[in-house]
Amino acid sequence: MNDYASVFVILMGLGTVFFGLICLIALTTIMGNVLKKFTESASVSAPAPVPMAKPIMAAPLPARETRPEVIAAVSAAIAEELGTDITGLRILSMKRI
Length: 97
Description:
Elements: H1 2-44, H2 68-82
């Protein structure tokens, strides 16, 4: 009796999942077709596109200095990870990657 009940529960669970997935596929297909028809009808009545202006090149950003607060935070994190005192660390340089 228990064997049939467990098989029934498994089959009902799988059936529910696959039924839900099939419903999701059907709904997304229907919504895709509705939106495609809506955008096609909207694009027919849309005005002609305006030509875009030539893009302006941005000036290169100056190199940013590393703030002392950032160096202190990185030093504390490294010291905590290594299990040493922060005074035992000596950071020579930092580079943003």
